[in-house]
Amino acid sequence: VDLFRNLMKSAFVVERQPCMPMHPDRPLVIKTGVQFTNKVRLLVKFPELNYQLKIKVCIDKESGDVAAIRGSRKFNILGTNTKVMNMEESNNGSLSAEFKHLVTLQLATHSLPVVVISNICQMPNAWASILWYNMLTNHPKNVNFFTKPPVGTWDQVAEVLSWQFSSTTKRGLTIEQLTTLAEKLLGPSVNYSGCQITWAKFCKENMAGKGFSFWVWLDNIIDLVKKYILALWNEGYIMGFISKERERAILSPKPPGTFLLRFSESSKEGGITFTWVEKDISGKTQIQSVEPYTKQQLNSMSFAEIIMGYKIMDATNILVSPLVYLFPEIPKEDAFGKYCRPEAQPDVDFQEPGCAIQPYLKTKFICVTPCPSVFMDFPDSELLGNGFPGTNSGNTSDLFPMSPRTLDSLMHTEVQEANPGPLES
Amino acid sequence: VDLFRNLMKSAFVVERQPCMPMHPDRPLVIKTGVQFTNKVRLLVKFPELNYQLKIKVCIDKESGDVAAIRGSRKFNILGTNTKVMNMEESNNGSLSAEFKHLVTLQLATHSLPVVVISNICQMPNAWASILWYNMLTNHPKNVNFFTKPPVGTWDQVAEVLSWQFSSTTKRGLTIEQLTTLAEKLLGPSVNYSGCQITWAKFCKENMAGKGFSFWVWLDNIIDLVKKYILALWNEGYIMGFISKERERAILSPKPPGTFLLRFSESSKEGGITFTWVEKDISGKTQIQSVEPYTKQQLNSMSFAEIIMGYKIMDATNILVSPLVYLFPEIPKEDAFGKYCRPEAQPDVDFQEPGCAIQPYLKTKFICVTPCPSVFMDFPDSELLGNGFPGTNSGNTSDLFPMSPRTLDSLMHTEVQEANPGPLES
DNA sequence: ACAGTTTCCCGTAAATGC
DNA sequence: TGCATTTACGGGAAACTG
After folding, report:
1. Is the Cβ atom of A68 within 7 Å of strand C at any atom?
2. B36 C-beta neighbours (distance < 10 Å), count
């Protein structure tokens, strides 16, 4: 028996395949009440043992250690916990031996660490744990890792962060984007290589002046990218991580109407905004951003359509678009036009002149800013004549002169797009 | 023992209270996997029996009958199925008797029929069954009711339909609304009283030319009302059920800008639209509706805000609102203004002239129709100069003259609301 | 093939635990 | 008391089933 046991131990190679999980992008995170599959494979084939090897599944086998940790919890696998391994029969006329009661073998294989969550809202933190663990240790089951988690270097963290994008989209993070993230974690510096980042800084502590950690903020942006703006991200249209100072520096020398896309730094839930250059009445260069769009808003309208349709609505209900060129100089139609649904055409068939019943008029939502900054003399939006009551603050005026921009746009009989000032072709 | 049993039977009154369900508006519908409570109450108090009466719960007790029905299913109650009744102790010095082993009593109480569903999407049909059953029988457990469901009269159905609104909102259905619904079920007629409606007509068969039944259509509208436009419904602002012919008849004599709110007849999911009067270039009265708004769209913007902000966008990017008076003659601001969130004011604090960092510009969605019907000569929306590529149909022109309406609205230096033609004060 | 029915499970909200 | 964690369940989608 001992001879046989040794034979088996040296002959078999056990390979545990990564579990086919609930969340394909986030294996190793298991949610209570949700099914997952896991596969154990023998790399050596013994036809004689077909249907003779029984696998028994259990969770937290070594919970003697785990139980010592405060607040640890016992999990159970529902359903049957044993299966017989079935190899494909190979009917070559080999000798066969039948084992009725096979000797129990202790063949072990280890997964990377697994995190159990009870609600999907715990996924960001669970995944952060997986990342930090695998970034800093090869130990297969160091249950005490997070009782005193080691620090990582910026170089390690940067690689992991970029991989979060490159593994689920067609594009990782550029040096510029990573430098912006480094500054968020470590403050201003010229070289972040070798700088140390603690687990607390990465995932536990809230960022200065914010109600959420660095990782929660970033992971919500990853989610935003994957679910709402994947195509634009893959195209490289989203600069995304750029400080407001650098944004100003690169936009200021550009012609008015040049804009870039940037993630919100203040929103926990993941937001995206655009920032553009314009010239105000006095000819001074202004940098403007809109309040970031959230997932909620992007549900009803794609970001490409928002960009294409965004208008500033002046006092006389005239719309002009301040967005012309995606930085550095891509006409916005070239970049975003192909991601906009073509507009529904009016149903001309029914519009017979003599027909009494009109068809439904098609509508669309557009995103507008009622109060352009060039009217800073009149910051009260009630002046805009949008007809909305209830926002009256008392100092309204019924007389409102046309702005230079409005007059300018009225000069265009060629109405492709009413642009502010200097950019008409 | 028999004497005691008889005493008990005559002394106790068992009252089954309606179950406190998963869906408060829809009791008697039970969903698998979801908890519910049910209460059995004794109307006569015997302090001596306190904590002596044991209740045993079961489902489908008489499943001998049920099992005979094709496709019937067995359900189980999870968790404990027995409870001891506890009455509040009354410590008046009464005589007491202790019964160690109480005689089993067959005290029965019946609920109205119960429908079990496995997904909430089955709720509309489940509730329809409850309604039809209770409308037409008092039998507490006629398991075969739906093998040959009896017909109802329009009078019965009308009462039930109105009750669906009055029991969950502050307003039932008017005679006019009910007449519109009768016409959908029974076709045109002058008097629907006494007309017969089959269960199939009510809930099983699709309506003519539609992919859904009468009840599914109506129940989605009830859901729309409750979740999205409850306040407007309670105010009586929603005419809702009105035929397009009658709509035309009542709107035509009204001044341009008069509008009413009507449910979509073509959308399964529940939709609402507005219809208004306007005069076209030739002075002819036109009746216009927008494509109905769905729950999806109302998620991002309330219907009141859509109504207040709705604009027609002409070729020169000028916006005008065709909606002025809610039928018969309520100014729209009076009706809907109070249901619009006040607009966020620009964050003036940060707008110091010397400050380099501008605040975010506030944005809002507005709902527009790019191609007004008065421009029927130019049905191609590409002509609108909205700058959207990709909808080019080949016959575009770069020259587009200003419309009379546009010129008219430009004349208003008093810009409260640019209205079409005859209604400015 | 297909329509009625059930299962699966995310994501919001509420409840519970610590 | 406040935060962390779990439970509850609607609703969209996929899977199942007769």
Report:
1. no
2. 13
Interatomic CA distance for residues A241 and A165, integer angstroms: 13
Give the A:B interface size as CB pairs under 8 Å: 226
User: Which residues, by CB, come closer than 7 Å to strand D?
Assistant: A 32, 73, 117-119, 121-122, 125; B 22-23, 31, 34-35, 71, 119-121
Q: Do B296 and A300 touch (CB under 8 A)?
A: yes
Q: Of A365, A388, A410, which has the smallest distance from its Cβ to B340's Cβ? A: A388
Q: What angle do CA B295, B296, B297 make, to 5 degrees?
A: 90
What is the C-alpha separation between A319 and B318, in angstroms, rounded? Answer: 6
Alpha-carbon torsion angle A181, A186, A188, A189, nearest 10: -100
Global confidence as pTM? 0.79
pLDDT along chain A (425 residues), means of 10: 66 66 81 85 71 75 53 76 65 48 67 87 96 92 88 97 95 96 94 95 92 95 94 95 93 94 92 91 87 88 91 80 92 91 55 51 80 40 33 30 31 34 33
Distance from CA of B47 to the nearest CA of A (A): 45
Phi/psi of residue B16, nearest 5 degrees: -85, 120
CB-nearest to B290 from A296, A345, A363 is: A363
Supply A309's token pair: 């349709």
Distance from CA of A402 to the nearest CA of B (A): 8
- The label of the residue with tokens 């399964």 reads B268
Q: Could you write out the DSSP letters of every residue in A184-236?
A: HHH-S-S--TT-EE-HIIIIISBPTTSSSBHHHHHHHHHHHHHHHSHHHHHHT
